[in-house]
Amino acid sequence: MESLVLGIVAVGAFALGAGALFVFLRASSGGMMRRAQDESERLVADARREARELTLDAEKEALERREAVDTEARDSRRELTRAERRLEQREEALDRRAEQLDRNEQSVRDRTANFDREERRLEELEQGVRGRLEEIAQLTVEEARERLLEDLDQELREEASRRVRAMEASAKAEADTRARKILATVMQRMTSEITAETTVSTVSLPSDDLKGRIIGREGRNIRAFEAATGCDLIIDDTPGLVTVSGFDPVRREIARQALTRLVQDGRIQPIRIEESVNRARKEVEQTVKEAGEQASVDAEVAGLHPEVVKTLGKLKFRYSYGQNQLRHALETSWLAAALAHELGADVEVARVGGLLHDLGKAVDRETEGTHAIIGADIAKRFGVGRDIVHCIEAHHEEVKPETVEALIVICADAMSGSRPGVRRESSEQYIKRLEALEAIANSYDGVEESFAIQAGREIRIMVRPDSVDDLEATRLARDVSRKIEETMQYPGEIKVTVIRETRASAVAH
Fold this sequence. Notes:
Blueprint: H1 2-137, H2 141-187, E1 200-204, H3 209-215, H4 220-229, E2 232-234, E3 241-245, H5 249-265, H6 270-298, H7 306-313, E4 319-320, E5 323-324, H8 325-343, H9 347-356, H10 371-381, H11 386-393, H12 404-418, H13 427-442, E6 447-453, E7 458-463, H14 470-487, E8 495-500
Parallel strand pairs: 7-8
Antiparallel strand pairs: 1-3, 2-3, 4-5, 6-7
Helix pairs in contact: 2-8, 4-6, 5-6, 6-7, 8-9, 8-12, 9-11, 9-12, 10-11, 11-12
């Protein structure tokens, strides 16, 4: 019974739960359907609203596009109207131009006809004038033509001279600029001291009593000394000094050293004199050798024959116009090498040629001939190269220079010997050089006066204006400079200036 009751209760509870569930599910489904219907109505309203907005935007855009097209069409019509107007104006202008051309053509035809008439009339006049001129001038046409051609020829020569003068000035200016640049580049690399020229040497004495001992009994000591050295001893009233005189600088140096040693020793007699001179000779020979070797090292020249080096070293005691010749040889070598480098020539040939160019001066008192030829013979004898020998023999142009290196050595020699202050000249030689300059200038026709100025580095020539014209003055300057080059020896360069002056004066009363 209880089981039945429990079963009935269970069934009833199940039925109640199922009914409640059914009621709940039905209520939930109805709510969802209402929400879905509300949402769908809202979406439809939104879609309609967006459709209306899109339609309005499309209509607005279409309206704007239509307005733009209408504006563009109006602009195009206006531009077309302007183009048609311009075209009409051009057509009118072309019509006017064609009419003007027709008028010009007619005018040209008229002028041509007038020109032909005038030409015939001028020919008639020319024939009449020609006949009249022939009567007046008593010249035929051919003679007048010849005279005219002569005048034209003279004008052309004058014009050619003016152009040549202008071209020479331009070329000289350019050459001077380049030459100054090269020379300045080379010369700034080295300087050298200046030594006074001398043919005597002095020896100091501790007391004047030694003068009598140097002379010796009946002059035997002084005679023995002069015979051994080949130099003269001058013993005068000068206190504390004895002068050694001689033109051979090596012998003079031997004599000076020997006498200095004898004075220090105090024993002066013929045997001691001979011993002292022999000892001094060996020392000087060693000094000469060392000087030649040092010069070769300083000039960066290697491979010279020992005799060439020895001869070069003798220049240590040789001076010319106050310039030490060994120092001059080194300067010339350095300058020649620098110039060759600047000009793209053979640097080694120029270097050695510059070092040996005055080699002959070391022995020119022992051998006949000029020092350039003597030096070339010495160099050739001891195997120096042919190009270098040519530089030596041609450096004073006794032999015509045939290579660039020879010309470079000539320039380097002149630069070393003529730079300001390096050489000195006696008053007599200086005056003779100035007189020779003025004599050359005065030898030409039309020269009124000439003045050598700037220590002989410039000569100014005054010419008579009625005898020499401007073109002739230019030729005169060129001729004088050429004659100076051919007939004179001088350091550096000499400027020739021709002055032609015309004056007019009047007196007011």
